Amino acid sequence: MTLTIPIAPEVEARLRHRAAAQGEDFSEFIAKLLSHSADPPIPLEEFSGPIHERFRASGMTDDVTLQPFATIGGGSGGSLPVCR
Question: What Rg, from alpha-carbon coordinates, does the chain have?
């Protein structure tokens, strides 16, 4: 399949730079990028593997784990958003 997608020149330049840095043909690089974007996300449990298992086995909660970071950036120590 062939697509024509209008993109800003600065975006094209960044993509061409990334393709060149990886030693890939620009068209093939874009095709891989689009293909990867269409893949379903990897579940956290699969991505983190043994680390996730050890965390769950520890009994710690996300709130306890994130507490030391709650005040970074001048926060008030409130809850942080957690990706699940």
Answer: 20
Q: How many domains does the chain have?
A: 2
Length of the chain: 84
Same domain, 24 and 48: no
Average pLDDT of adjacent 10-residue blocks, the chain of 84 residues: 92 97 96 92 81 82 75 57 56
Tokens 């709650």 sit at which residue? Answer: 70
Q: Nearest to residue 79, comparing CAs of 63, 68, 55, 57?
A: 63
State whether residue 3 is helix, strand or coil.
coil
| Domain interval for residue 57 | 41-73
- Full-model pTM: 0.52
Tokens 């062939």 locate to 2
